[in-house]
Amino acid sequence: MANKYPFLKDKVVLITGGTGSFGKNFIKHLLKNSEVRKLIIFSRDELKQSVMASELTDERLRFFLGDVRDLPRLQRAFHGVDIVVHAAALKQVPTLEYNPFEAVKTNVLGSQNVIDAAIDQGVSKVLLISTDKAAQPINLYGSTKLCAEKLFISGNVYADRQTKFSCVRYGNVIGSRGSIVEILLQNREAKTVYVTDERMTRFWLNLEQTFKLVTFALENMEGGEIFIPKAPTMKVIDLFNTIVPKAKKKITGIRPGEKLHEILITADEARHTVELEEYFVVLPENVEIGDSRYHRFHQVGKKLEPGFCFTSDNNTVCLTDKELLRVVEKMS
Length: 332
Known about the structure:
This protein is of the alpha/beta class and 332 residues long. The chain has helices at 21-33, 46-55, 71-77, 93-98, 100-121, 140-159, 180-186, 207-220, 236-243, 267-270, 295-300, 321-331, and strands at residues 12-16, 38-43, 61-65, 83-86, 125-131, 164-170, 172-173, 192-195, 201-205, 226-229, 233-235, 248-251, 263-265, 273-275, 279-282, 302-303, 310-311.
């Protein structure tokens, strides 16, 4: 076992949504690369927990059945925990457009429950896994994740610096469960595939890049930041042409709640964002004069140009066909 993350040594880490795509793979990553004392999987799916327990036999693992909608259950689960990564969410955009309050109960009220439980139980650090759809949202999912971000950032006021709350925000993850990449890989012999719009672009990361972002944020967070990767972009039609080149592409039109292009940093956020080598850090707007917590970000980073915004159609870094295929081959 490598100790890639010394700051996690002997810590108790809990992942909400720990049986989801990110949670499950991040747990495997931490078991292999860190000396955490205990890893707690908090989720509501007993079957997925059972399957996971049979696949992973590490003695540091604990399984806690519960729902983020249930505050008392979270309070019990967070007892003695040092770090919480909040990845539990409902996220299927078309489904949530027609079931909006279910998303509110999990993504908004559930996030507030995580905040309250963490403060009550004295958790040191809590990190929200957010999405590019939270930046200038047009769909219900993005709106609930924007609410969750705002709740996390303001949670620092109530925690009196005893518990730190921050966020990471990124785009699509290649190979996550139910993703378009996974669907295409399962149907590589399909004669016809359906594309919503030929112009559509998206940000893309692989799982390893998400782990790197999350661990960077956990190690460096002071509370109130949103950490954003310099993610590459690719046209959705190019992704289809790379994975299923022989299939006929039929254009269906954008679905309810979809954007043509995604945003990771808005022009308004850019005014209080610092650019680092691999990441952007959106600092809280209400930083008091003389607050030294964020000085090191300014020391090693730089301010963004006026009017800057980071969108999937103005990004200068593109995901190439070869890079995509390298990731896809590892999944096969």
